[in-house]
Design brief:
Helix content is about 55%, strand content about 0%. InterPro entries: HAD-like_sf, HAD_sf, PGP-like_dom2.
C-alpha cells in the first residue's frame, strides 16, 4: 500500500537538468546541430517533443526539418 508520494518539482531531490541537457545535445548533434546552454535554458520544463520542435524551428532550414521529423 502506498503511504506517501514525493513530487520533486524544483529539482531539490533529483537534479535532472544536466542529464536532460546532455541527452538533448546528443539528439540534435545527430542532425549536425549544436544545442547551446542559452537555448536550452529558455525552454527548461517543456516536454521533449515540443522542446525539439522549437529547437528545430530556431536552428534548421525547412527542408532539413522535414527529414528529421520523417
Amino acid at each position: 500500500m502506498i503511504q506517501a508520494v514525493i513530487f520533486d518539482l524544483d529539482g531539490f531531490l533529483i537534479h535532472s537538468e544536466l542529464p536532460t541537457f546532455r541527452l538533448l545535445q546528443h539528439i540534435v548533434k545527430k542532425y549536425g546541430l549544436l544545442l547551446e546552454d542559452s537555448l536550452y535554458k529558455k525552454r527548461i520544463g517543456k516536454r521533449i517533443k515540443p522542446f525539439l520542435d522549437e529547437v528545430c524551428n530556431d536552428l534548421i532550414p525547412e527542408e532539413k526539418k522535414r527529414a528529421i521529423v520523417a
